[in-house]
Amino acid sequence: MSTSRSDIFARTVETFLRPVLDPLRDPSVSEIMINGPADIYVERFGRVTRLAARFDSHEALMAAIRNVLQFSGKRITPESPLIDARLPDGSRVHVALEPVSLQGPCMCIRKFGKELLNMQALIDAGAMTPEAAEFLRLAVRAEQNLIVAGGTSSGKTTLLNALSTAIPNDQRIVVIEDSSELQLQQEHVLRMETRPPDRYGRGEVTIRDLFRSSLRLRPDRIVIGEVRGGEALDMIQAMTSGHGGSMSTLHATTPRDALNRLETLAMMARVDLPLFALRAQVASAIDLIVQVARLVDGTRRVTQISEVLPLENDEYRTTDLFTLDGATVEAAPAAAPSGADAGPRRDIRLKWTGEKPRFRHEPTARFLLDEAKLCREMFL
């Protein structure tokens, strides 16, 4: 798409989304939830509030939805009431229509900051400590297969974007997504996006199709926006057959849950594989799980970094390398939203547990000791 055409789309989208134009332009707003023409909410600093803004009518909201979908090459059909799309600025959009949405058309816009966040930005925001950030950077450099796990709106994609900055610029990276969100800054990046079937059920391209294609495109790294189905088995098998340094996100609340969920998703591939063999492949494929969460105060943080160990008695095992540790302090956060309590709080930090990563002895990790500064003791 040419720049001029993209600009035209951007201006047109803004015209149709005029009722929510202010929050779209507000950098403090992370999500816009449109539950109907007169029912609009936003998330700001982790808190959800209702807006007075509204669309003029049901038809005005549907016109906005159609315009957004047109930019992504998607369209509304009775057979496709759930649709993923994106705005010209890269923000992710999900649309739910009747009859699955009982209150009428709904649209959720997940905004992404215009300023790309790197590891230092996450440190400055309190999402992780400098020691943990250095460790993760070295793990990515050492081609460890890594899963970022967490709940909805916990910061998984943001962290994956930041982690990707540690990938060497001379490597070929294939990025696979349902709807393009990741913003890798390396020179040699091939982006692939799924495609829904047409009205006759033809032409669908799934994550699994794209993953199989990517293996024939000579990737150094494969990055999947989110693992959701049977492609998990293909990813696991690729990770265990020489494609190191792959990364993805997954919905799970603990590292152990992440492994169990990955196992369940792999079963959706409908391949007749004994459970022990599948678990052994999962444990062999995944090296590190980075757990993220949105805390009760609205902040998003890395809460745990765990290394996956070999199976024991056919059960998954992990060892925690970093966990949360904290003490009560008097000062309130400098970046707290207006109206936040300024009283005593828990100053929670990610702390090294004393466990050393097993991968420090692998051939790809020979350089780690030379590059480690803050977490050097982990690799001695």
Would you write up a description of this structure?
By secondary structure, the protein is an alpha/beta fold. The chain has 2 domains: about 5-110, Beta-Lactamase, CATH 3.30.450.90; about 120-380, 3-Layer(aba) Sandwich (Rossmann fold), CATH 3.40.50. The protein has 11 helices and 15 strands. Strand 2 (about 40-45) and strand 3 (about 45-50) form a beta hairpin. The relative contact order is 0.11.
List keywords for this structure.
about 375 residues, Rossmann fold, alpha/beta, Beta-Lactamase, 11 helices, 9-stranded mixed beta sheet, 6-stranded antiparallel beta sheet, 15 strands
Helix content: 25-40%
Overall number of strands = 15
Q: How do the strands of the widest beta sheet line up side by side?
A: 9-8-10-11-7-12-13-14-15
Shape-level CATH architecture of the largest domain:
3-Layer(aba) Sandwich
What is the string of SSEs from the N terminus onward? HHEEEHEEEHHEHEEHEHEHHEEEEH
Gap from first CA to last CA: 51 Å
Helix/strand class:
alpha/beta
**The level-1 CATH class of the largest domain:** Alpha Beta
> What value does the Rg take, in angstroms?
22 Å
User: Which shape, going by the Cα principal axes?
Assistant: globular
pLDDT averaged over residues? 86
What are the low-pLDDT stretches, counting only 5+ consecutive residues below 50? Answer: 327-344
| Multimer state | single chain
Provide a concise account of the structure shown.
It contains eleven helices and 15 strands.
Question: How would the blueprint of this fold be written?
Answer:
Elements (H helix, E strand, L loop, with lengths): L2 H14 L4 H5 L3 E6 L5 E5 L2 E4 L7 H14 L10 E5 L5 E5 L9 E5 L8 H6 L5 H12 L4 E5 L5 H9 L8 E5 L11 E5 L13 H8 L6 E4 L6 H9 L7 E5 L3 H13 L7 H11 L2 E7 L5 E13 L2 E15 L15 E8 L15 H4 L9
Parallel strand pairs: 7-11, 7-12, 8-9, 8-10, 10-11
Antiparallel strand pairs: 1-2, 1-6, 2-3, 4-5, 5-6, 12-13, 13-14, 14-15
Helix pairs in contact: 1-3, 7-8, 8-9, 8-10, 9-10
